[in-house]
Amino acid sequence: MRIKTFPKGGVHPPENKIAASAAIRDFSIPEIVTLFMNQHLGAPAEPVVQKGDRVRVGDLVAKSGGFVSAPVHAPVSGVVCKVEPLPDQAGYKKMAVVLETEGDEWIDAIDRTTDLVTNTNLTGEEIIQRVSEMGIVGLGGATFPTHVKLKIPPGRKAEVLIINGVECEPYLTADYRLMLEKGEEILVGTKLLMKALQVDRALVGIENNKPEAIDHLSKLAKKYPGIQVAALRVKYPQGGEKQLIKALTGREVPSGKLPVDVGAVVQNTGTAFAVYEAVMKHKPLIERIVTITGKGMAQPSNFRVRLGTSLAQLVDAAGGLPENTGKIINGGPMMGKAIANLDTPVTKGTSGLVILPADESQRKPVLPCIRCSKCITVCPMGLEPYLLMTLGELKRWEEMENHGVQDCIECGSCSFVCPAHRPLLDFIRLGKANVNRLIRSRNK
């Protein structure tokens, strides 16, 4: 099997897949869940419940706020005790629904058996509608509503579906465990996505540091015509959409274009599994796999957890915070963001928490750029990060736009290799936000 990769840039951070051998465990049902209405990209969902209402698992709590949006469903049965703005993970107040758990009563429509279902009479359009109704979003981190990706714009045509099983972020192992434990369900979900997109070819990309997953899915895929498992060289950010498309198909997504412009649609393995449950089991997105890990953790774990569960409870179940904790990162260490405290809930986009020790958490003194060009060498998008940072420091937003700042995928490779410890990604993110503001003002 030829090992593929993307040709431009990339780095090799320590993998630290500490929780890779930890089988997925069902986390206990929380007493309180907090459901934010902005758990996805696009318009926030709109609450359809009021304080005092009673809900069952799977009941609709909030409807879509628009086409690029996703509904929210109750992950527990109980009583609505709050419908009000609450501080989110960034500390900003956002609309949320808080449920107090009373038992575990599910709506009748959900098939709770573990029996594998492989066939459906639903049409492609009906599959997309079911995915939309069940609130499925991209579970690789971006949380883009899945039904939007499946509706191909007029004049374009999908030719290949790519399932992203790379999980190239250090520490995170949720997708890896899911591939080992729910491989067949992932492949059925892949067939459903293929039917929705009207394509007859799917590629499952997995880095070759996961040989058990490659072998397992390769054997299962023999029963599913059109699905092929492809081994990828270990290189970060292999899981980036554009990098994955280039590695698997040889096609390059042009600047400012989307994957479908080169005939590709990318979905995460967790998303494929969620699509299986939505279509075949009529189960909304009410839970997901979350990795809780770190070098000092007593019991690094992969949990199947109801959305809205407090992150503090998950950390306690994994042994609690080590005494030398210096930073808590929501997501992986390369693209994730530090959070100030654990009093915040699991959302659809919570792939994991990484607990870093103090000696690995402190930023080193920022030194002048030594013009070594390492940041340029490792940039998978062919940008000039040192220049973008300088323009960001000077608030020259239009020049940042002209130098392609919007093509940055925020992988952090530039900051990772910088010998002067310059906060390249911080200023690039600042620049992207201001450039987007400029573009919106032009389009008014």
Describe this structure in words.
With 444 residues, the chain is of the alpha/beta class. Helix content is 27%, strand content 19%. Among the domains are: 157 residues, NADH-ubiquinone oxidoreductase 51kDa subunit (Rossmann fold), CATH 3.40.50.11540; 69 residues, no CATH class. The protein has 13 helices and 17 strands.
Question: What's a concise summary of this model?
Answer:
The protein is an alpha/beta fold and 444 residues long. The protein contains 13 helices and 17 strands. The strands form four sheets. A six-stranded mixed beta sheet has the order 1-14-13-17-15-16.
Can you give keywords for this protein?
4-stranded antiparallel sheet; 13 helices; 27% helix; 444 residues; Rossmann fold; 6-stranded mixed sheet; alpha/beta
